């Protein structure tokens, strides 16, 4: 046991902290593992035990204090990429069958045929006209 350097024990500790990181997906364990890795590097460069522990604590606390709030901020923001029906809002479509306020018309939107109705019930759009999709209600596109 005395033949094994302190840096090896720090690496074993880093690996041991990596296991709960993978199992629980808690990034704090990864930050502690990085601190253990920094302590292993300190031990490998000849730092004594007190310096190794101070490096472990300093790196771990710094990572938790800096990286964790940034990660939480990114986790709470909505993705910029719209998908599904949200991606169709604002797109242009071509009228295939007369579209009015009754909802009996058809449009070609993103390569697919959709039922459509006009947002303004007094307005009608004739085949061939381009319209803008403002909302999707079920399987019906609301257009202007």
Automatic annotation (TrEMBL):
It is a multi-pass membrane protein. Keywords: Membrane, Transmembrane, Transmembrane helix. Its main location: membrane. The keyword Membrane applies. The chain crosses the membrane at residues 50-71. It comes from the Bacteria. It is found in: Membrane. Residues 85-143 form the NfeD-like C-terminal domain. This is NfeD family protein. It comes from Streptomyces hokutonensis. The lineage of its organism: Bacteria, Bacillati, Actinomycetota, Actinomycetes, Kitasatosporales.
